[in-house]
Write a structure and sequence with these properties.
This is Succinylglutamate desuccinylase/aspartoacylase family protein. Keywords: Hydrolase, Metal-binding, Zinc. Pfam families: AstE_AspA_cat. It contains 6 helices and 14 strands. It is of the alpha/beta class. The chain folds into 2 domains: 229 residues, Aminopeptidase; 67 residues, OB fold (Dihydrolipoamide Acetyltransferase, E2P), CATH 2.40.50. The strands form 2 sheets. Strands 1-3-2-4-7-5-6-8-14-13-10 form an 11-stranded mixed sheet. A 3-stranded antiparallel sheet has the order 9-11-12, with no helix packed on it. Strand 11 and strand 12 form a beta hairpin. The protein starts with 27 loop residues before the first strand and ends in a 7-residue tail after the last strand.
Length: 329
C-alpha cells in the first residue's frame, strides 16, 4: 500500500533567535511573574517535524507574552531534529538517534552508559521539567486526522482534558512499549501528585489547520492554569469548543513484529468498527482483528514501521461529555 505524501502548507519559523536563554537551557525560556501561581510549560518540537507547536511558541516569544501569575516556560525540545528537516524526506526529521518521547523515566535518564542526541537533550531539560506543575506538549500526526488530546492513563489527565474542553476526542492510554513519554514523566504520571500534563495531537504535521488547534489549546491551557488572562492573548486564537467530548480508553496497542504489516484500508484515525472480529490489517500474513464491538482506531500509521513500533492503538468510548456553552470561556 502506498503512503500518501502530504503537502507542506506552513512556513517553518527561524527559531535561532531563541537559542540563548537566561534559563541556561538553549531554546527554553522561563518567565517568573513574581506572583504566586503554578509553573506552566508549553513545549514544542518533541518531534522535529511537528511544526505547529514551534509556530505557536515562536509567536508567543516574539510577542513577549509574560505571565501575570506563577511562572511560564516556553520551550523547543528536539531542536537538532528540527534543524535537520528536509522537505524531500520530511518524516526523517522526527528524531536524530531515537524518539525523544520514549526516554522519560528516571532510570533511563540516570543511565549514563546510554547516549544519544535525544538523551543529551532530555538530560539538559530535565532539571527544569522537574519544576513544572502543568505541561502542555504540542504534537501533530503522521496522517491527516481530526485533532485529539492524549490524556494518559490517570483520571486526573482526563479530568484536565474535559476542563480544557477541546479537542473533541480524549484518548486515555498507558503510552508505548518503546518507552515513556514526557507527559507521563514522574509527577505527571503519579496519581498522588498534583502535577498534570496533556499532549495535544493538533492535526497532520504540515497542515494549516493544525496551527489553529495549537493556538487555541495553548491559549485555553494558559487561561485554565491562571497564568494569563484572555486579554493577554493574540487576537483570533480562541475557537469555539466542541459540543461534546468523547473519552476513549485505549485497551491495547497493535505492535509490528516485523516489516510485514499492512492495513486493510487507508485508515487515518478515529475509525469505528461496529462489530468485533473485523479485519483491520495483516501482520506476517495473519489477520489482525478488532477484539470488541465499536472498536476505535487511534492514530494508525506505517510511516515509522519497524519491529517494536506501535502501528495503531485500539480504543473504547467510555464516556461522552456534553456542554451547552461552546465558547469555553
Amino acid at each position: 500500500m502506498s503512503i500518501e505524501a502530504y503537502p507542506i502548507e506552513v512556513d517553518f519559523p527561524d527559531i535561532s533567535v531563541h537559542e540563548h536563554s537566561p534559563s541556561g537551557i538553549a531554546y527554553v525560556h522561563t518567565f517568573d511573574s513574581g506572583v504566586p501561581g503554578p509553573h506552566v510549560m508549553i513545549n514544542a518540537l518533541t518531534h522535529g517535524n511537528e511544526v505547529c507547536g514551534a509556530i505557536v511558541v515562536d509567536e508567543l516569544l516574539r510577542r513577549q507574552l509574560r505571565p501575570r501569575r506563577g511562572r511560564l516556560t516556553l520551550g523547543f525540545a528536539n531542536v537538532a531534529a528540527y534543524l535537520s528537516f528536509d522537505p524531500a524526506k520530511p518524516d526523517a526529521a522526527r528524531f536524530v538517534d531515537q524518539d525523544f518521547n520514549r526516554v522519560w523515566t528516571a532510570a533511563t535518564l540516570d543511565d549514563t552508559s546510554r547516549t544519544s542526541s535525544e538523551l543529551a537533550r532530555a538530560r539538559a531539560m530535565r532539571p527544569l521539567i522537574d519544576t513544572v506543575d502543568a505541561l502542555l506538549d504540542l504534537h501533530s500526526m503522521h496522517e491527516k486526522s481530526k485533532p485529539l488530546i492524549v490524556a494518559g492513563p490517570l483520571q486526573k489527565g482526563s479530568e484536565l482534558a474535559v476542563k480544557l474542553g477541546t479537542p473533541a476526542t480524549v484518548i486515555c492510554d498507558e503510552g508505548h512499549p518503546e518507552g515513556r513519554r514526557m507527559r507521563d514523566y514522574e509527577g505527571f504520571g503519579d496519581p498522588a501528585s498534583a502535577k498534570n500534563a496533556l499532549l495535544i495531537e493538533c492535526g497532520q504535521h504540515w497542515e494549516r489547520g493544525a496551527v489553529g488547534v495549537a493556538r487555541d489549546t495553548t491559549a485555553r491551557f494558559l487561561m485554565l492554569a491562571g497564568v494569563i488572562d484572555e486579554t493577554d492573548l493574540p487576537p483570533g486564537w480562541l475557537a469555539p469548543v466542541p459540543a461534546a467530548q468523547h473519552i476513549v480508553r485505549v485497551t491495547q496497542p497493535v505492535v509490528a513484529t516485523s516489516m510485514d504489516f499492512r492495513f486493510a484500508a487507508p485508515y487515518t484515525g478515529l475509525e469505528i468498527f461496529e462489530k468485533a472480529g473485523a479485519v483491520i490489517g495483516w501482520s506476517n500474513g495473519e489477520a489482525v482483528l478488532t477484539p470488541y464491538d465499536n472498536c476505535m482506531l487511534v492514530m494508525p500509521s506505517l510511516r515509522q514501521l519497524r519491529p517494536g513500533v506501535t502501528v495503531v492503538r485500539l480504543g473504547k468510548i467510555e464516556q461522552t461529555v456534553t456542554r451547552a456553552d461552546t465558547t469555553g470561556r
